Amino acid sequence: MNKRWTWPNDEVVLQIARPLAAFVLTLLLLLFVRHLVIKWLYSRTRGEGSFLHIALDTLRFPSLLWSIAAGVQIALEISIIPAKSPTSTSVEPPPPLQHS
């Protein structure tokens, strides 16, 4: 009994593949835009001692992390993970204090 794996029709695979594809595509797009913007801004600097050059050197790594975070956010938005419901996790407030 050889069970053939029906990849495109397998719901579990699609639940993983869609968010993974969204993450990869979003990350690639954002990294490409990041590269173009940083390259353009570096061309506008007036040397290695200028403020813009130092600011760009400082923001290179955080902008990479921002791109990854945005990709994860997009992937989580279309994933099967349920959103938190404010009514299901809310705690009732304490009763008001009685002044005598």
Please characterize this protein's 3D structure.
The protein has 100 residues and is mostly helical. It has a domain at 31-80. The chain has three helices and no strands. The protein has helices at 11-44, 51-77, 86-89. Helix 1 packs antiparallel against helix 2. The protein is flat. The mean pLDDT is 83.
Summarize the structure.
With 100 residues, the protein is mainly α.
SSE layout:
Blueprint lengths: L10 H34 L6 H27 L8 H4 L11
- The H-and-E topology, N to C, reads as HHH
Distance between the termini: 79 Å
Helix coverage percent of residues?
55-70%
Task: Characterize the overall form.
Answer: flat
Q: How confident overall, as mean pLDDT?
A: 83
Number of strands: 0
Question: Given the structure, what is the number of helices?
Answer: 3
- Strand content is under 5%
Taking all Cα atoms into account, the compactness measure Rg is 24 Å
Multimerization status: single chain
Structural class: mainly alpha
Q: How would you sum up the major sheet?
A: none
Low-confidence stretches: none
Keywords:
mainly alpha; single chain; 3 helices; 100 residues; 65% helix; flat; 0% strand
